[in-house]
Write a structure and sequence with these properties.
Length: 233
């Protein structure tokens, strides 16, 4: 690996980690010596890259550091295109359009030598089975999640029984054949999963969810480990 590429990769590795990362760990990932990493870190610091830390303790890349746009490796481009292909076939309509736009923007922005990776990728996402059609705009639910807002759902369960729920939306799972809303249900006082194609109507409320999404997601993951099935019952 050229030294310039290694410097770029060190920044990428530090960007991935919030906690201090040792030179040993960086050297192991890049398959180089710890001494080389020490030299590279010193070079980056001299170039005013905001790396904080010291030998033997670990290094952290401070927030707010921007690299030139779309300085992507071939593997990173292929990963982005593969992910966008998957979203195009399985995401809700707004996300599917955004994924198609993303592929077009990447193709227009990358250097000419890398454009075939976007237009003729070596990796392809498998075609999706026909996804059920949603009766509501899932983009509105995603906006409620980002905004930390509660929502009310008119829902029909597996037996087509109607129910209304007031929930704290946490995340939307894009599975192989369905899309699933994960939420804390105020009625059941527990986490529940709602298929988005069974939601008949949704209303985003002004009332805010009392906990941060990251905290709720952590609690949900623990609940799923302990009790795998959490449907809309």
């Amino acid at each position: 690996m050229r030294r310039a590429d290694r410097l770029f990769q060190i920044i990428q590795i530090l960007r991935r980690h919030r906690k201090p990362l040792t030179a040993d760990a960086i050297a192991a990932e890049l398959e180089t010596s710890k001494r080389s990493i020490y030299r590279d870190i010193a070079t980056l610091m001299a170039q005013r890259v905001p790396i904080r830390g010291e030998a033997g303790v670990g290094y952290v890349l401070e927030g707010g550091y921007d690299m030139p746009p779309l300085m992507l490796t071939a593997d990173e481009i292929e990963a982005a295109v593969l992910g966008a292909q998957w979203v195009t076939s399985r995401g809700d309509p707004a996300l599917a359009r955004a994924a198609q736009d993303l592929i077009a923007k990447v193709a227009a922005a990358v250097p000419e030598r890398l454009r075939p990776i976007v237009l003729e990728p070596a990796s392809l996402s498998s075609p999706s089975r026909a996804m059920p059609v949603d009766k509501v705009d899932v983009a509105g639910i995603r906006a409620a999640i980002h905004g930390g807002r509660k929502v009310t759902l008119d829902y029909r369960d597996e037996q087509d029984r109607p129910t209304q729920r007031r929930v704290w939306p946490i995340t939307i799972g894009y599975l192989e054949t369905v899309r699933m809303l994960v939420a804390w249900c105020e009625l059941r006082q527990d986490f529940r999963h709602f298929r988005t194609d069974r939601i008949q109507q949704v209303e985003v409320l002004e009332e805010r969810v009392p906990e941060r999404p990251a905290v709720l997601r952590a609690k949900w993951r623990k609940t799923v480990r302990d009790h795998p099935r959490r449907d809309a019952g």
